[in-house]
Amino acid sequence: MKVLVTGVGGQLGHDVINELHKRGHSAVGSDIAPVYQGAQDGSAVTALPYVALDITDAAAVKRVIGEVHPDAVIHCAAWTAVDLAEDEENRETVYAINVRGTRNIAEVCKTLDCRMLYLSTDYVFDGQGQTPWHPDCKDYAPLSVYGKSKLEGELAVSELLTKYFIVRIAWVFGLNGKNFVKTMLNVGKKFDTVRVVCDQIGTPTYTVDLSRLLVDMVESEKYGYYHATNEGGYISWYDFTCEIFRQAGYTTNVVPVTTAEYGLSKAKRPFNSRLDKSKLVEAGFAPLPDWRDALSRYLTEIKE
Known about the structure:
Layout: E1 2-6, H1 11-22, E2 26-31, E3 50-52, H2 58-68, E4 72-75, H3 88-112, E5 115-121, H4 145-160, E6 164-169, E7 172-173, H5 180-190, E8 193-197, E9 201-202, E10 205-206, H6 207-218, E11 224-227, E12 230-231, E13 235-236, H7 237-248, E14 253-257, H8 259-262, H9 278-282, E15 288-290, H10 291-303
Parallel strand pairs: 1-2, 1-4, 2-3, 4-5, 5-6, 6-11, 7-10, 8-14, 12-15
Antiparallel strand pairs: 9-13
Helix pairs in contact: 1-6, 2-3, 3-4, 5-7, 7-10
């Protein structure tokens, strides 16, 4: 199977293309950079075919994907800077990438009759209540520019295609790029005490585990909406931080605070990021491992 992966310069795309390679698929990576540099920490990465692609350029998308002629596209590229998306000067770019870029890809996938997997987010919901969000729930009410743009990307895919997977994820961490775990490790080294919100609830997602699931999906024809995070129950960012420090051997004091007490954020964050993942098992996909185990493996990976 030939698969084109967008956004290979990011956390998830990096792991997805390497997972495809491990399984013997013909994997082609793309991103906006002229040349793929591999992991941002400089670690070795398997040399794989790469093509520079600006997904906001419809003509370029048509040409590049047409030349690759993949059986599937795993669309990881996105604007993910949630707070910066709120700035007026960035909004056009956010929508160009997350909406029009996604639509450009979906239109070519429709022409080529190939599968498309689109990565989305819990931010498409309003984040209220305590009931886990079901993947087929249509009660959309995004609170932020980022959430609205990702929802419009979802709708572009579902309206244009029948052979699609829309996979919502949350609290992502991986080797390539910035994430909450790396931030907390850096903060925990510098300060004796850190304040972390305790009223936003969800579950972390390790990109290595997620990439295996995404490849499982595109190898199948079990199309539709899915939610995917690691197992291990629902926790707060405070709980996650405590476990990060425990596993890392830090003695840093963690103080729980409410979102209102913490302040700072430009974008509204969902309080309820609980995602119902039962549909994965119903469709025959293996659930992701416990997030504590995932964190342990990740901490080992970034030390090497």
